[in-house]
Design a protein that fits this description.
Layout lengths: L3 H6 L8 H7 L11 E4 L9 H17 L2 E4 L13 H11 L23 H13 L3 E4 L3 H14 L17 H9 L5 E4 L8 E6 L3 E6 L6 E3 L11 H11 L4 E5 L6 H11 L5 E5 L2 E5 L2 E4 L10 H7 L3 H12 L1 H4 L3 H6 L12 E2 L2 H13 L3 H15 L1 H9 L1 H9 L18 H5 L22 H14 L6 H14 L6 H6 L8 H13 L7 H8 L1 H9 L6
Parallel strand pairs: 1-2, 8-9, 10-12
Antiparallel strand pairs: 3-4, 4-7, 5-6, 10-11
Helix pairs in contact: 3-11, 8-9, 11-14, 15-16, 15-17, 19-20, 19-24, 20-22
């Protein structure tokens, strides 16, 4: 144990005592049972969709208990930090409706909410552990640590920096001061009292009682003094931050389950009350018949940006993720599942498979329940960010957009389900907008056998006599009459009976008009499409076929 004066000389002279921070961040005044939760992304890469699952969990538990949900940016690994990632986090929280009550963006009384701005807080508690003999300075080099690990493996003993292997653990103060005077870089290590093979248990709010190997390793709690601004490691910062932010429930993926013994030790040594943990299984993917973790390096659907850029309706994605987290919610209708609290005891522990095909189906069902104005607002918001040309078209012709969205959707028992993502709007509805449509002057292969002169004549006569008629049957008679006049069979059956007598049937004749209006042989009800486009547009588009040759 070092002299207090020696320890204090390692830190800024004006560094506050622990009591200062305890008073600065007092216990929250919340109703009994209220939970304070946090989601803590690291800006070392784009946000994983599993992170949104965690955020959804944290927000849901806090909201339904009358507590607080906050976001803390954990940026102690600054060497791996990527520019612009924090801004991506903020957008992801907005898109998926998990905006925190407290964060770097929204503020709050328990900040700063980014770890790089909390250095003095950490130093206070590092100094406190050193003063009380729960930590020590370690000058072991990387080469020495590598050699030690090799020796441990050869001896078939537990690996780590502990006991007799921890060469700086019980060094006399004189040797420590000498190394310091020589300017050797050091880290600060926590002094673990556990022996290899010891066990520890705790109650997980989701899994019940869990027993694990106790931590016997003297983990690093403050990184190398050689750095310009030494920051704490994740484990130590986590313990200090969760205590001072008065977190009452930590919800996270089970990849962190093995870290609990370290965290329990740190809370005990720091004199903090233990925090409740809840761990759930990661999201998985089926790959060649085998299950594996959904990977940001291998799987585009692992990244939150994939869903944003593709225009997945965020409400449908939230519903899907909630169902993966808590299986009972997947069996409920979306509106009901949205309001039912997530049950911690029902969290998945075996891993849930992310199935994009199933998500597409959920999205199609969800979009089919929306009114036209809701879809238009959502598509416009997406297009303004990812498809400016489409955004301009929607802004120029909003009434036509709403008209298009009403076709075979409003007032019908089974509305169309051909729109799953906002990025598909252009392909499904783009032909309604003049600025996105290219006039058709050549027929597709399916109609290529029809005489070109006949097509031009048929198109010319159609525009010469075309009238807007509300009754669908009467409207279609315009096509039927001209078709028969120009040598098409009045019905497919009549055509099949004597194909050599006709250019095609009424089906092919109507397809000529369909292609002229939509650019495709497939579309919703043709009369409804023509009505939405309006007479002038119909005349102009069909008129383009009069030049075919």
């Amino acid at each position: 144990m070092y002299e207090r004066s020696f320890i204090d000389s390692l830190f800024p002279s004006d560094l506050p005592e622990p009591t200062y921070w305890e008073e600065r961040f007092p216990p929250r005044q919340l109703a009994p049972g209220a939970r304070v939760t946090r989601f803590c992304p690291s800006p070392t890469g784009p946000l994983h969709i599993g992170g949104i699952s965690t955020a959804i969990l944290c927000e849901d538990i806090a909201r339904h208990s009358g507590g607080t949900y906050l976001v803390r940016i954990e940026d102690t690994d600054q060497a791996r930090e990527l520019p612009g990632v924090k801004e991506q986090f903020e957008r992801a929280f907005q898109v998926f409706d998990v905006v925190p009550q407290e964060s770097v963006w929204t503020g709050g009384d328990y900040g700063p909410y980014i770890q790089s701005a909390r250095r003095d807080i950490y130093l206070t508690y590092v100094r406190d552990l050193l003063r009380r003999g729960h930590a020590y300075l370690c000058f072991a080099t990387k080469d020495e640590l590598t050699a030690m690990a090799a020796a441990q493996q050869a001896a078939k003993t537990p690996t780590g920096y502990y006991g007799l292997w921890a060469t700086w653990r019980d060094k006399p103060a004189e040797e420590v001061e000498k190394a310091l005077a020589e300017g050797l870089p050091y880290v600060v290590r926590f002094r673990s009292e556990a022996e290899p093979g010891a066990r520890v248990s705790f109650v997980d709010a989701s899994r019940g009682t869990v027993e694990l190997n106790a931590n016997h390793n003297d983990v690093v709690i403050l990184k190398s003094s050689h750095l310009e601004t030494p920051l704490p490691t994740y484990h130590f910062a986590h313990a200090v931050d969760d205590h001072l932010m008065r977190i009452s429930l930590v919800i996270r993926g089970d990849e962190w389950l093995s870290s609990v013994p370290v965290h329990l030790q740190l809370f005990s040594a720091l004199g903090f009350d233990q925090i409740e943990y809840a761990h759930f299984a990661p999201l998985l993917k089926l790959d060649k018949g085998n299950k594996r973790k959904l990977s940001k390096r291998k799987d585009p659907e692992a990244s939150v940006s994939y869903y944003d850029e593709a225009g997945y309706p965020s409400e449908a994605v939230r519903y899907y993720l909630r169902g993966l987290i808590n299986g009972r919610l997947a069996e409920m209708p979306l509106i009901e599942a949205r309001s039912v609290p997530i049950n911690l005891a029902g969290l998945t522990h075996s891993g849930a498979l992310v199935d994009v095909v199933k998500l597409d189906d959920i999205c199609a069902d969800y979009v089919a329940t929306l009114a036209g104005p809701q879809i238009l607002e959502a598509v416009t918001g997406w297009a303004e960010r990812y498809d400016p040309e489409l955004a301009n078209a929607l802004a120029a012709e909003p009434d036509r957009a709403l008209g298009a969205l009403s076709i075979e959707r409003e007032g019908v028992e089974n509305p169309r389900k051909d729109l799953r993502r906002w990025s598909e709007f252009r392909a499904v509805y783009g032909y309604f907008f003049d600025s996105l449509f290219t006039a058709v002057t050549e027929l597709p292969d399916k109609l290529a056998g029809i005489n070109r002169t006949l097509v031009a004549t048929f198109a010319r006569e159609f525009i010469d006599t075309y009238a807007e008629i509300d009754d669908p049957d009467q409207w279609f008679e315009q096509i039927r009459g001209l078709a028969v006049k120009n040598g098409f069979a009045a019905s497919p059956r009549e055509y099949r009976a004597a194909p050599e007598r006709y250019q095609g049937s009424i089906r092919e004749a109507s397809q000529i008009i369909r292609v002229a209006l939509t650019g495709s042989t497939r579309s919703p009800d043709l009369q409804a499409v023509a009505k939405c486009l309006g007479r002038d547009t119909v005349i102009r588009r069909v008129g383009a076929l009069t030049t075919i040759h």
